[in-house]
Prior knowledge:
Blueprint: E1 3-11, E2 17-20, H1 22-30, E3 42-52, E4 60-70, E5 76-80, H2 91-101
Antiparallel strand pairs: 1-2, 1-3, 3-4, 4-5
Amino acid sequence: MTLNQTSHFVLTPDGGVREFSADLAARVAAGSGRLPEYADSRVRYLQITVSTEPNDDDIKIVSAGASIRFDATGRMTEAAPLKVEGDQISSFEHDACVQWALRDVPVAAATRH
């Protein structure tokens, strides 16, 4: 199995987590897409990439986070590294997003001895 998929998540200050499509993520990053529900706010962004190599059963997971700010219309105006202590993504939030990104990856059957 060969796999290469990227999932995009917004983590809100009130504890919400929202996944959005790669298409919407690209449009927001390019300035042509909006997320009006985040107008005039700053949220944390987490990108999870899950990949495998042909003929290899190992799964590789790479994550990257950022702090993103939106204007009054919901257009992204800033993307910055997670620097401030309050900006950090908790291990629980990170692991929950990784598990969600893995939801469609086939799992091998359990081996019984």
